[in-house]
Amino acid sequence: MPEDTRREDKIPVVQMLVVGLIASAIGIAAGLAIEWFPTPASTQAGPIDHLFDVLIWTSVPIFVLVTTIVLFSVFKFRMRPGEENLDGPPIHGNTRLEVVWTAIPAIILVVLCSYAWVVLTDIEEAQANEMRINVTGQQFAWTFEYPQSGGKPIKSNQLYLAKDRPVRFYVKALDVIHDFWVPAFRMKVDAVPGIVTKYRVTPDRLGTYPVVCAELCGLGHAVMRNTAHVVAPAQFDKWIAEQKAPAQAAGGGAAKQADGKTLFTDGNGAATACSACHTLADAGASGQTGPDLDKVLKGKDAAFIRESITSPDKEIAPGFQGGIMPKNYGDTLSGEELDALVKYLGDVAGK
Ligand code: CUA
């Protein structure tokens, strides 16, 4: 008689399905209970969040079911002592099963892709009364430009938006790839040198929201942040008017006196604030990205300070790396502002 080299195992289909269904229910509940995204602040956010929930509903059961079957099989059909020479039953495939496991995922994919396509087309639809904003990414700051009909565009390092006013962003990059993202709006797009990428958003909730860079773009990537201010339409118009005529807004037509400390802590609209990256006791700043100015500027003269602002990579402080500080402060600060900043830093840190 031939030696029996086969091992027969019954597959407990019902048990496995029950375990899989319970695990799926737990997985879906956990997936929906977690707050994946910040408070939504655009009309685009609702449909995107809903799409995300539907993807959880469909993908969690499949993931859980497959994982359950794999883990269960590894345990149930493991080799026991004395079975070293046994083999499993000879399986040559199962056409019906293969058709089923090909057809079901194909149907699920077609349905989900169609739904996602409908959502995308819907949220990207052109809006009447759309405002254009040009977004520029460069290591390591975002700047925003508001084209004005028949006038110079307004430049800002803060993103101001009017509630319920549709915006179309035209995004570009000057050096490497960045990614323009306001998580509260849910929309994001790569900023790629040489091309202009676009997307639409209609902010529908007042407040301030972080603008972040979502593409690793160098050592300063993590500090490539700004703030999006969604304000009432009247307030937005007022802000635009102020940007157009900063001198008048300050009162009496007299040019606003450039103040070094204010420039240091707030920037000037086009230039990012120094306090975002540097420590300076006098300004209450504690940034760690760049050198501690109380230390590195001690005993330095005005010429050194000026050069450190306009040509930051000429001399690098020990322990730091070049190429992180924006190289355009010489352009984004006016001559008067640069003088005020140099004087202020000389007064509080140079002595
Ligand atoms: Cu720019 Cu990351």
What is the topology?
Elements: H1 13-33, H2 45-76, H3 95-123, E1 131-138, E2 141-146, E3 154-156, E4 159-162, E5 167-173, E6 178-181, E7 188-191, E8 197-201, E9 207-213, E10 226-231, H4 233-244, H5 246-250, H6 260-266, E11 279-280, E12 285-286, H7 293-296, H8 302-310, H9 329-332, H10 335-350
Parallel strand pairs: 1-5, 4-10
Antiparallel strand pairs: 1-2, 2-3, 5-8, 6-7, 6-9, 9-10, 11-12
Number of helices: 10
Kindly report how far apart the N and C termini lie: 101 Å
User: What is the radius of gyration computed over CA atoms, rounded to a whole number of angstroms?
Assistant: 30 Å
Helix content estimate:
25-40%
- Strand count: 12
The gross shape turns out to be: elongated
**Order of helical and strand elements:** HHHEEEEEEEEEEHHHEEHHHH
Given as residue ranges, the uncertain stretches (5+ residues, pLDDT < 50) are 247-255
Main beta sheet: strand number and arrangement?
5 strands, mixed
